Amino acid sequence: MPEAPLTLPTLIRTIRNARTQAEERDLVQRESAKIRGAFRDDEPDSRASNLAKLLYIHMLGYPAYFGQMECLKLIASQKFHEKRIGYLGAALLLDEKQDTHLLLTNSIKNDLLHPSAWVQSLALSTLGSLGSAAMFRDLAGEVEQLAREGQPSVRRKAVVCAVLIIRKVPDLIDAFVALGDQLLTDRTHGVPHGAVMLIAEMCEQNPQALEHFCKRVPHLVGILHNLVVAGYSPDNSISGISDPFLQIQILRLLRILGRDNEETSDSMNDALAQVATNTETTRNVGNAILYETVLTIMGVQSASGLRVLAINILGRFLVNKDRNIRYVALASLQKLLQAEGCAVQRHRSTVLACLTDPDPTVKRRALQLSLALVNSSNVRATIKELLDFLSTCAPDLKSDCASGIFLAAEKFAPNKRWHIDTVLQVLTMAGSYVRDDAVPNLIHLIGGATELHSYAVQQLYEALAQDISQQPLVQVATWCIGEYGNLLLAGSCEEVEPKQVDPEEMLSLLERVLQSHLSLPATRGYALTALMKLGSRLQGNSINRIRRLVSIYCSCHDIELQQRAVEYNALFRKYDHLRSSLLEKMPLVEKAGYSEDGSEKEQPGRETSISLHISEAVLSGNSEPPESSQVSDLLNLLGDPTDPSPLQPVTSTPVATGSFLDLLRDLKPPAAALSPLAVYEQDELLVEFSMERPPLEPTLLLITATVSNRAPGDVTGFSLQVAVPKSFQVELLAPSGSTVPGQGGPPITQLIRILNPRKLPLRMRLRLAYTLPSGTAVQRIEEVSSFPEAAWQ
């Protein structure tokens, strides 16, 4: 005797009691087979119960496609409970990608004309959830008729369905404009809410509809005024506020109608001020209305006093107990900073207080806004607060905080000493989290402050003696000791109390850096160069100690360190008479800036000045035969064949010049310059590629992506991803930020390294994602194949 089919409650209970996945799967397969057999035998009495069981099986993730036609049969039934199961099954098992759903059009049309409000509601719900453009065009007339003349519950559903129709088929807007005017005057609760949604959708889609409904602003303002002053109504009020959902929808519609329309904006100023001042903030409902009011005030051409009131509302949100409200306030203030900077600055202390919030997301938002609030008038106080935060914040925030402090100090530093002190504090507290360009930037800063050399080297020496774990700090300190160690030996410092350092103590500290397991190869390279530079200023046993330390690394596993040590050791053995002139102080190299369009400026004469400086240091006495012999020996430092003929100009021996430049790795030949390439220009964003190819690595292409924003508002959440063919290798370094400031702000940059070993034509696919000032999220994919031949050949 065959096993009887299970009822729906029994099926649910049995599946829940299954102990293993295999037992559940076996039970579902057996029951699905029974249901399929019942459908095949066309048993009308059990069709509804079988489809209900199949829908439960579908919700568990098992296939249920064979029940689609049964849904259509149940929808055509005259029994309400069967029709309800049929519509539910259609909503779950069908979608507009399947041709089967087109068979629903006639059944839905018949049910829209059914005398029962319950059947009409079922048809409207199903049409809104899975209707296609073709179905909407066929049934728009019936939906519009129900929205005008149906029962209140049906009218509400019909209006929502009309919103979905317009969203998918904007061509039908003209058929619903008159409906929007009629429903706006309807007093049935819930219908005006749908009418406002319908009008907002039409205004977003059609400029003619926007112009038409601008004339209804006084009526909308009147409705909003009545809701604000209305007393408590048990049917419509929530937490003491009358119909908050309708208030929010009206505020959104006013924001659409008043955008770029001064006359319309003036007519709603009084109503917005009334909502902003009379709404209760003790409950979350009132806060939601106030937030929507702030967005409307800032989205239309409102009066300046009203905009200040909106900023103050967000300022009150910052001290709210609800962390979600604090987060929303911080995000909103950051968007409004460009347009209302002075008003936002009044809440700077409250924003800084949010840095101590226990919620990490609020803390991150507060950090971003605090960094954006820094300017020349508050840089000292704000950076002091941010440094305190940096010392205690979580590791995942240290990188953003340190980078932000670096950028703010570089832009708004009141003097060079304050700038140096600030960067040193950041390196001391979070040296492992700073960006890669922190070390060269600080070196350039110290090198340009001639009057602060003694102060900087003394401060760095003391910091290095206390902690050698922060690698960027160690690198800057060792560089300064090598360049300005004579000031430490002399003990001359006017800024602070001078401290004279013993030469052996200084060498011991550098030896400790070399031997530390925490030191990176680059750090050891800085230390080796510092030892050599000190060797040109020390005498006696100190020289022998330096020579011994350098010779240890002649067999180092790291090729860079080994080559550097071998070259330095050759200086000691063969060319000791040239060591002092070679190891003079480094000349100051001009730092590349940015032009007005955001591209990197060329520095003419930059490499020429270095070459001239070296030529003057080495070739100052080239008229005498001994000096000429010395220079020939110098160019043949590592045993290259020499020519006994008279000395030729240095520029005619490129190989020898390369060997000479290997003495000081920091001096490299200039890279081949390529013209910038604009790869993306949409939404007022401009992305340009500045390319260069290092001469010593012909297969490497360095691309600096510069992102500038021509719009007045900030573009947030910007990210750039790059994909290249398999024959290439690509590496993206961290960008300088994720927020592209508005017009007049500095651009953000990101370095891209492309390795092209086969020198094939370069092709690239870019994926850009960002959020516009309006809040719209944008994601685009671009193909770039117009790279010049010089970039890859």
From TrEMBL:
The signal sequence is none
Q: Where is the composition biased (Polar residues)?
A: 620-633
- Its family? Belongs to the adaptor complexes large subunit family.
Q: Name one GO biological process term.
A: intracellular protein transport
Q: Its principal location?
A: membrane
Q: Which Pfam families match?
A: Adaptin_N (PF01602), Alpha_adaptinC2 (PF02883)
The subcellular location is: Cytoplasmic vesicle membrane; Endomembrane system; Golgi apparatus
Keywords of the record, alphabetical order, are: Cytoplasmic vesicle, Golgi apparatus, Membrane, Protein transport, Transport
Query: What is this protein called in UniProt?
Result: AP-1 complex subunit gamma
Q: Which residues cross the membrane?
A: none
Domain spans labelled GAE: 672-788
Q: Which InterPro entries match?
A: Adaptor_Complx_Large_Subunit, AP1_complex_gsu, ARM-like, ARM-type_fold, Clathrin/coatomer_adapt-like_N, Clathrin_a/b/g-adaptin_app_Ig, Clathrin_app_Ig-like_sf, GAE_dom
Naming one, the record's GO cellular component terms include:
AP-1 adaptor complex
Recorded topology in the membrane: Peripheral membrane protein
Residues of the region (Disordered) are 620-652
